[in-house]
Amino acid sequence: MNAYPVTDPQALDIKATIQPPRTSIQYTMLYANNGGFDWARLTQACHKLVAAHDILRTVFVEHESTFVQVVVKELDIPVVIQHAETEDLERSAESLCAAHIDSNNFRLGAPFFYIFLLQAKDSQAECLILGLSHSQYDGVSLPLLLRDLEALYAGTAITPSAPFSTYLSQTLTDGPARTEALSYWNTLLAGSALSILPGQTPANKASATEKAIFRTAELPAACHPPPLGITTATLLTAGWAVVLARRLRTPDVLFGGITSGRAATDGDDTAVVMGPCYQFTPVRVHFERTWTARELLAAVQQQAAESLAHDFVGGFGAAGRDGFVDSVVHHQDWEEFESMPFAGGEVKVGIANPHGDAARPVKLVSYVKEGGMHVGVVGAAEDDELVDGVLKELAEVVAGLVTAEEDGRVVLDEQSFQMEE
Q: Which residue from 38, 93, 94, 188 lies 20 to 30 Å from 402 (Cα-Cα)?
C-alpha cells in the first residue's frame, strides 16, 4: 500500500464525487446488441484491468484536512448484474446510472470505480456500464482503459501504462524541470489579476445544489478548418480573451485553460500515464493597442506553445495563487466516437453524466462535430441570460477573428485601455 498527495484538479474532482451534485462522475456504456457478453470472460477481464492499473485500485482519504490517494495491492470490484426494467435498454441504462449516482456509495475510503452488466428485458442484448470518478481518469486515459478492457476480454496481452505515481513523482519532486516551470509561471503571472466575468450570481448566494446549463452554437464554415497555422484551440482562447477584455474594459485578462498536463519532464513516460494528468493552466493575454486579429492569434498561440512545456505543474498554485479560476477554455480536439471494436465485433458507446457539468467555473468549449466547428458555454442555470449572451458574443468574436485575420483591423477599441491609463 502506497500513499501519495493529490493534484489540485484531483482535489476538486474528489469533492465533486463525494458530495452532490456529483459532476465528476461519468458512466461509460458499451452496448452489445448481438448476443451480449460472455460472463466468465468479462468478469476475468475486469479483474485483470483493475490489477493492471494502480489508478483503479486507488482510494481517497482525508488526513489533516488534506486529501491523500492510497494505492492498495488488491481491490475487488465486482461486476454487478442488473436487469432492465423496460424494453428500452438505453433508457434503462440511463435510469440505472441516475439512481446509482444519487446513492450514498461515493465516500472517502471506498472505491470510486463501479461495474454493472445490464441485461435486456426481452432479448440477449446487454450493456456494460463503467462508472468512474474524474479523479481517476482524463480524456487521454479513458480510451486507453477501454482499449485494454477489449484486449483482456479477447485474451490478448496489454501494453503496460505508466502508473499515476510516475506522473506525481515527476511533477511534485524538485528538480531542474520543476524549477524552470515555477519560474515561468511566476514571470507570466507577475502583476496580473484574475478576470471575473461580471453579471454572475455570487458564489456565496448560489444554491448549494446549483445546476449547470450547456449552450452551443455552430460557427460559419469559414472557421473550420481555421486559418493556416492557427489551431482551433487558439481561436477559442483568443475569442474568450476578447470577450473578457471588452466586458471588463481592460487590456490585461487572466483566465484558465484545461490542458493535458502531460508535457515531458524527466522522461517520456507521462505520455502513457494512466490517470488524471490534466491541469488548469493560466492564460494571460495583455493586449497591445495596435494588435490586429492576426497578431492576437499569433501571441495566444505562442504563449500556448511555451506553456505546454510547463503545464505539468499547476500554474496557478505554482505562482502562489489559491487555484480559484473564474473561467476556463477547453478545446476538445477529438471527434466523439459512437462505437468501438469489442470481441471481434462492434459495440455502441454511450456516455452518461446524470448530474451534468459543474456550474462553476464558467467553461468555454470548442469542438468539431460532423465537419463543423462548434463553441459552447457551461454556466449556472440561474444565470441563463448571461450564458446565452456570452455564447452569442463568443461565437461572433471567434467568427470575426477569422474574417478579420487578413484585413488589419485592431481587435480592441480605446475603451478597453481606459483602466490601464
A: 188
Q: Is residue 341 part of a domain?
A: no
Q: State the amino acid at position 50 in one-letter form.
A: V
Residues 320 and 415 in one domain: yes
102 and 7 within one domain? yes
Range of the domain at 93: 2-161
| Pairing of the two strands 339-342 and 345-352 | antiparallel
17 and 127 co-located in one domain: yes
| Spatial CB neighbours of 333, under 8 Å, sequence gap ≥ 6 | 232, 233, 368
Same domain, 304 and 372: yes
Alpha-carbon separation of residue 230 from 152, 302, 304, 372, 408 (angstroms) = 40, 10, 11, 16, 17
pLDDT tens-digit readout, 152-190: 999 999 988 999 998 998 888 778 888 899 999 999 999
Same structural domain, 398 and 261:
yes
Summarize pLDDT for 12-44 with one digit per residue, the tens: 999 999 999 999 999 999 999 888 899 999 999
CB 145 within 8 A of CB 251: no
Between helix 293-308 and helix 176-189 the angle, nearest 10°, is: 150
Expressed in angstroms, the distance from the first to the final Cα of the chain is: 58
Work out the pLDDT band at 265, boundaries 50, 70, 90.
Answer: very low
Statement to judge: residues 188 and 212 lie in one domain: yes
Q: Hey, which residues does 321 pair with through a beta bridge?
A: none
CA distance linking residue 45 with residue 146, whole number of Å: 11
Ramachandran angles phi, psi of 233, nearest 5°: -60, -40
Rounded alpha-carbon distances, angstroms, from residue 67 to 134, 311, 324: 15, 22, 17
Q: Is residue 292 within 8 Å of residue 411, measured between CB atoms?
A: yes
Alpha-carbon distance values, 327 to 36, 118, 151, 281, 365 (Å): 43, 38, 39, 11, 11
